[in-house]
Write a structure and sequence with these properties.
Largest sheet: 2 strands, antiparallel
Number of strands: 4
Number of helices: 6
Mean pLDDT: 92
Number of domains: 2
Structural class: mainly alpha
């Protein structure tokens, strides 16, 4: 019976990882400019055995997009801006992509970036989803075990 419960819990964990990923992506898609973004595509959840907790994995700029960037903070690397300009096919207005990247870097450094503030909605949705999934599955496992025990005793 212990191996059955282990398999059931592993199934719950696997399903929950998929559901958390999908739910997080759906929450982020509601924010302006986020639909179909590389950041959303990078979202993934995994279960950390050592900590006994689910962890969300995402591109390293996840926090910057959510919380924003204060003026006069560390400068955004030019290489990152160049790849972003090329990927988004941003017009350089006849100038070089490098010159455009420098201008964007200077503007971000001077003015900062306003955050999208999506961390709270993500936490709310994923916490609710996790508690619902775990409570539903555990109650089903308990009922299944009780039925199995009662059938064995007859």
């Amino acid at each position: 019976m212990a191996t059955l419960l282990s398999k059931q819990l592993k199934n719950t964990q696997d399903e929950l990882q998929s559901e958390l990923t999908l739910a997080t992506q759906k929450v982020l898609e509601k924010f302006k400019g986020m639909e179909g973004s590389d950041l959303i595509k990078s979202i993934e959840w995994e279960y950390n055995q050592k900590q006994g907790a689910f962890e969300m994995l995402a591109l390293d700029y996840y926090t910057y997009v959510s919380t924003g960037r204060k003026p006069r903070a560390r400068k955004v690397p030019i290489e990152d801006l160049l790849s972003w300009i090329k990927r988004k096919r941003i017009s350089t207005l006849g100038g070089s992509p490098t010159a455009t990247a420098w201008k964007i870097q200077r503007a971000i450094y001077k003015n900062g970036i306003r955050g999208k503030k999506y961390e709270d909605p993500v936490i709310d949705v994923t916490t609710e989803l996790t508690s619902e999934k775990i409570s539903e599955d555990l109650s089903n496992y308990i009922v299944d075990d009780i039925v199995l025990i009662l059938e064995q005793n007859n």
